[in-house]
Design goal:
- With 169 residues, this protein is mainly α.
- It is built from eight helices and no strands.
- The protein has two domains: 1-85, RNA polymerase sigma factor, region 2, helix turn helix motif (Rna Polymerase Sigma Factor, Chain: A, Orthogonal Bundle); 101-164, Winged helix-like DNA-binding domain superfamily/Winged helix DNA-binding domain (Arc Repressor Mutant, subunit A), CATH 1.10.10.
- The chain has helices spanning 6-16, 18-28, 32-49, 59-82, 104-115, 118-128, 133-140, 144-165.
- Helix 6 (118-128) crosses helix 8 (144-165) and helix 7 crosses helix 8 (144-165).
- It is globular.
- Residues 91-95 have low confidence and may be disordered.
Amino acid sequence: MSSLPPEQLLERWLTLHGALIHRILRAYAFTSEDRADLLQEIALQLWDSIPRFRGAAGETTWIYRVTLYSALSWSGKERKHKLGREPLAHPPLAPDTTAKAEDPRLAWIYEQLATLDPIDRSLLLMQLDGQTYQSIATTLGFSVEKVGTRLHRLKNNLARRFEERGPKQ
């Protein structure tokens, strides 16, 4: 457990793990408005999780777990609610974290992530972030063997897709 007050701990987490959080945002929220909403939800869930953080799991693992579960939960709720909503004619401006010119291969990877079910998306995102199989298994509650098997299948599937119609370079 950290000796920092909760406000400073949350600020520290958001600063140190901002890149991780934004990768998850991009994998689960596909518009700038949705990313802003999901970021608020993640920040709230991280805040609520501070009293339960005891340091048994590493800080990065804790942040990953809370962020990923928040994104999965938010994604499910959004899917249900989008059916009854109409888009705003002139949506308010929200910061777009993807406005920079990016590598088309990276854009292709995020497009492919968006087509996966939430668990497979989580597995692949964590693998792309360099998480070990053990860390992924701990975060998602799977066995290491199940993580390995599913990731192997996902990579083969993505390799096949890439060969069929890979990104334009």
